[in-house]
Structure formats: structure tokens, C-alpha cells
């Protein structure tokens, strides 16, 4: 499909190339003591594109794969491959050999770029007929003979450029086809919403690039001509030291990052108070209200955004800084150009205050799951409305609250129970670090509740105290029948709690009781 005369297709490198033309000598990316200017970065994009098109013979629409921890080369590869019209799968380097093998089989890459630390992950994969290039000397040698001149052509904005794999909290990971258009429009909305993505801004990239959000927040900074400093590995002490310099104006962290920061010694935290931040963005999992209070106390009011969304739908809502304290446990109002509907089990809209499945419609939507048309149809429904199965409610002011995952809902005695409500009550107790509530089969009630708790001390509240607190604040059918303390909650590589593992553990504990 041709665009009208005078219009150009949006591509993820379009803004970066514009920035290079405006200020070629400006630093685009930094990591440790290494920095790369915009001019040098574009030349590397071009070499990558020439390598796969001319050197390896890949064509428009072919697949490649990048398995790597955060580094400058990751950005080079994503952008250079996308300029060549090659779609890039980006599995997490913390996955197992078996999981990597499944993703290799699913995405069928013709070439795999892998960092030295992750190369052994390919041991179980079928790499016959696939070129494997190790990021390092092998990669540099491959690029050394490639021209630094390349003109992207034939790329349309609705073509996918990336295939991040969902973290698989409920089953096997699925490849999410992300088009240029949805990501570019996301960048524009993020720039207006967060205020830290201008040419004079400096972004600290902490989250893994293999995830859709981590890469999007990093690329936005250079899409608009700013500077992005990359952390190869998250270190909470290094983060607060970097922020304390005053150079960083924006960063994105998930709740686990904040938890590790506020677990640092108090004297270290106090030595690094003060910063130049305009925005801190949180995403990927609910941010407990107690953690928000710590963030506001340490970094100050007026900078924290809590964003809700999914890889498939893009950003759906944002709770802005002014609302963080007055709207507890809330994910905010619709992101720019986003419509939201909450629907009951019959597809009818629910009134304010009632729980329904959250559907959103926006220009940030994915193209579908790779090789999974039936599952795509479950997410994208008539009229472009999409749902990833989250249950939510909306208050009379138009603010949204995620209640729970539809698949995590527990039915006990015929009544619907959303574990997040119980978790929020238990989290307020002193000595509680993290909580996850799941259902276990029960012959009388269908399911009963089990609370798994990680404590912050050697003397956490006992099970009787936890149950009494729930009895005082919740209906009787929402009170856990069992409380079990564990060292840590099982999580996937994206930091999300694996409730299916907890459900299995709950059944095992019941059998042993």
C-alpha cells in the first residue's frame, strides 16, 4: 500500500537518522567508558544492513535472532536489521537451552547473533543451515568488510521489525510481531507524556533490551536525538550513583529494581540523595503503594509515572505524578490516543466500580503472534479491540485499577475472588516483603486460597496474625486457608511471578498436610 504523496513511512530508525543529520558528532549511546556518536552509530546500522542483505543474502521479511545482554551492539543490530527489512527475534539470554531451542524453531532465523556469554545456550538448538555470529571478534570481523553506506528501501510502517517473546507466565512463550508504526507512535506519545525524551535529555537504560518495554524506552531517547546510557547489568548502587550525578533526566525501572535499591544500606542511600530526573517510569508489574511512598520520599514528588500495558497492546494507561499519592493502587487514565472498555463475561460494558475484562484500542497494537492465528484472534477482536486477560475496575473519576489476571481469578463456593485484593491487604503488615495468593483445588469449595509470603525479617507476623488481618478487612470467603512462608517467589526472566508454580506447590503442600 502506497502512502499519499508527501507522506513518509514511520520506521524505528527514521528519527535516529534525522538526529544524526542534525548533530552527527553528538554522543548517542554510552556504556561504561565507551561512547558512540550519532554519525558512527548510523554507519554501524549501515554495515549491519549490508552484512545481512549483501553478505548473507537475507531478503525483506526474513528472520534473524539476537541473544544478548544489554550492549551497544544490541541497538546496532536491531536497527541495522530493521533497516534491511529483517525481522528480529530477541529471546532473553537468561532462558534455558530448551527454551531457546523452542524459540529458534518457532522463529526460524536465518542468522543468529549471540554474545559470548550466551553462546552455549544454542547447544540444544537446531542450527543447521543457520549462520551463527558471536558478538565480539567474529561480529567485528564480519562487519569490517561491509560498506558504511546503505539506503533503507521497501520498508513500510506496518511491517514488523521485532519479535520479542512473551515471558510465559501461563505457558510457552509466544512471539509478538511489533510493527514500525506502533512503536514510532508509542515514542511520540511517550515523549509528550513523560517529558524526558527531547534532544537535551539523557536516559538511563536499565531494563533488558530483549523485552519490548526495555528496548522501547531506550530507543525513544535516541529517536528524538537525546543520549542513552546503557547499564550492562543492573546494580542498585551503580544506579543511584549515576542518578546522583545530575546528568540523567529519565529512567525506567520495574518494581524489582526499586526493591533492590531500597534494600541498600541507609547511609549509602543518603549519600546519593539528589538527582536531575524529570521522570521515573515504572512498568511490568504492579508497584506496591508502600514502594511508591519510598520512591516519593527518596526522589521527591512530581516525577514518578506508573504505566500499565502489555507487549501486545503497548502502553494502555499512565498514572501521572500528581496522582501517585491520591490514587493508591491505581494505574491511571488512558494513554494518549487510547480507548478503554471494561466488559462482563457476555461482552457488555460494566458500570463504574464494577470489575470487567479490560479491552483497549489504540495505534500501539501488535500485528499478532508469530505462527499463532488462533491465539491472535483471542487477543484482537472485532473493531480492533484487544485484551490480554486483565481484570480491572474504573472509578467515577475515570481512573483504572487492575484487579488481577483473568486466569489468576479463583472461584470458591461459586464466588469470584481476585487474589490481588488479598495480597494488597497482607502487604501492609510489617515484616512482609512480598505476597502472592493462589487457589488450590478443594472438594467442598472448588478452590480455597493459599498465601505465599516472603518476609523482610526473622520475626515476620505469624500465620494467625495474617489470617486475622484478612478476616478484619475482607469477606470471609476471601480469607486464605493456608499461609506459607518461602525464601522467594518464583519469577520468569521478566520479573513476573509464576503463579502456576505456586499453584503446584500449594497442591503439594496440601497433599503432605
Summarize the structure in words:
This protein has 513 residues and is an alpha/beta fold. The chain folds into 2 domains: 319 residues, ANL, N-terminal domain (Rossmann fold), CATH 3.40.50.12780; 99 residues, ANL, C-terminal domain (GMP Synthetase, Chain A, domain 3). It has 15 helices and 25 strands. A hairpin with a 5-residue loop joins strand 19 and strand 20. Helix 6 crosses helix 7 and helix 8 packs across helix 9. The mean pLDDT is 93.
What is the distance, rounded to the nearest whole angstrom, between the alpha carbons of the first and last residues? Answer: 64 Å
Q: Based on CA inertia axes, which overall geometry fits?
A: globular
Largest sheet data: 9 strands, mixed
Helical/strand content category: alpha/beta
* Overall CATH class of the largest domain: Alpha Beta
Mean pLDDT: 93
**Physical arrangement of strands within the biggest beta sheet:** 2-1-10-9-11-12-13-14-15
Rg, Å, rounded: 23 Å
Beta-strand content bin: 15-25%
- Please give the share of residues in helix: 25-40%
Low-confidence stretches: none
In short:
The protein has 513 residues and is α/β, with parallel strands linked by helices. It contains 15 helices and 25 strands.
Keywords for this structure?
513 residues, alpha/beta, Rossmann fold, GMP Synthetase, Chain A, domain 3, 7-stranded mixed β-sheet, 15 helices, ANL_N_sf, AMP-binding_CS, ligase, acid-thiol ligase activity
Amino acid at each position: 500500500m502506497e502512502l499519499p504523496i508527501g507522506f513518509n513511512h514511520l520506521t524505528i530508525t527514521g528519527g535516529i537518522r534525522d538526529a544524526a543529520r542534525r548533530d552527527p558528532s553528538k554522543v548517542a549511546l554510552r556504556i561504561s567508558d565507551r561512547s558512540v556518536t550519532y554519525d558512527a552509530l548510523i554507519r554501524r546500522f549501515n554495515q549491519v544492513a549490508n552484512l545481512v542483505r549483501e553478505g548473507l543474502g537475507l531478503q525483506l521479511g526474513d528472520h534473524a535472532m539476537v541473544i544478548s545482554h544489554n550492549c551497544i551492539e544490541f541497538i546496532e543490530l536491531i536497527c541495522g536489521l530493521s533497516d534491511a527489512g529483517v525481522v528480529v527475534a530477541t529471546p532473553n539470554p537468561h532462558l534455558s537451552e530448551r527454551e531457546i531451542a523452542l524459540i529458534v524453531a518457532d522463529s526460524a532465523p536465518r542468522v543468529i547473533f549471540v554474545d559470548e556469554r550466551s553462546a552455549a545456550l544454542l547447544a540444544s538448538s537446531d542450527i543447521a543451515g543457520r549462520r551463527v555470529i558471536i558478538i565480539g571478534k567474529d561480529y567485528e570481523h564480519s562487519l569490517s568488510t561491509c560498506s558504511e553506506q546503505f539506503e533503507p528501501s521497501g520498508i513500510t510502517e506496518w511491517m514488523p521489525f521485532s519479535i520479542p517473546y512473551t515471558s510465559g507466565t501461563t505457558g510457552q512463550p509466544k512471539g509478538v510481531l511489533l510493527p514500525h508504526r506502533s512503536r514510532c507512535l508509542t515514542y511520540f506519545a511517550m515523549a509528550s507524556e513523560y517529558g524526558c525524551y527531547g534532544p537535551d535529555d539523557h536516559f538511563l537504560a536499565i531494563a533488558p533490551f530483549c523485552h519490548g518495554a526495555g528496548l522501547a524506552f531506550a530507543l525513544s531517547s535516541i529517536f528524538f536525538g537525546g543520549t542513552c546510557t546503557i547499564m550492562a547489568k543492573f546494580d542498585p548502587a551503580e544506579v543511584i550513583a549515576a542518578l546522583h550525578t545530575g546528568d540523567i533526566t529519565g529512567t525506567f525501572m520495574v518494581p524489582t529494581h526499586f526493591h533492590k535499591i531500597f534494600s541498600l544500606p541507609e547511609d549509602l542511600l543518603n549519600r546519593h540523595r539528589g538527582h536531575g530526573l524529570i521522570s521515573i517510569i515504572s512498568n511490568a508489574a504492579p508497584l506496591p503503594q508502600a514502594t511508591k511512598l519510598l520512591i516519593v520520599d527518596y526522589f521527591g514528588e512530581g516525577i514518578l509515572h506508573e504505566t500499565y500495558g502489555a507487549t501486545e497492546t503497548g502502553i494502555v494507561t499512565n498514572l501521572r505524578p500528581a496522582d501517585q499519592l491520591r490514587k493508591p493502587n491505581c494505574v491511571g487514565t488512558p494513554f494518549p490516543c487510547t480507548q478503554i472498555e471494561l466488559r462482563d463475561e457476555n461482552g457488555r460494558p460494566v458500570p463504574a466500580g464494577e470489575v470487567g475484562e479490560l479491552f483497549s484500542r489504540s495505534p500501539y497494537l501488535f500485528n499478532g503472534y508469530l505462527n499463532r492465528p488462533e491465539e491472535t484472534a483471542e487477543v484482537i477482536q472485532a473493531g480492533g479491540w484487544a485484551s490480554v486477560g486483565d481484570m480491572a475496575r474504573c472509578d467515577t473519576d475515570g481512573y483504572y485499577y487492575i484487579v488481577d489476571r483473568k486466569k489468576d481469578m479463583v472461584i470458591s463456593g461459586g464466588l469470584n475472588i481476585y487474589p490481588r485484593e488479598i495480597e494488597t491487604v497482607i502487604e501492609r503488615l510489617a515484616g512482609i516483603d512480598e505476597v502472592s495468593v493462589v487457589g488450590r483445588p478443594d472438594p467442598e469449595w472448588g478452590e480455597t486460597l493459599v498465601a505465599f509470603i516472603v518476609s523482610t525479617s526473622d520475626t515476620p507476623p505469624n500465620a494467625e496474625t495474617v489470617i486475622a488481618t484478612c478476616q478484619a478487612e475482607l469477606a470471609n470467603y476471601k480469607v486464605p486457608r493456608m499461609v506459607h512462608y518461602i525464601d522467594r517467589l518464583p519469577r520468569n526472566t521478566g520479573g513476573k511471578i509464576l503463579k502456576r508454580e505456586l499453584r503446584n506447590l500449594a497442591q503439594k503442600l496440601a497433599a503432605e498436610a
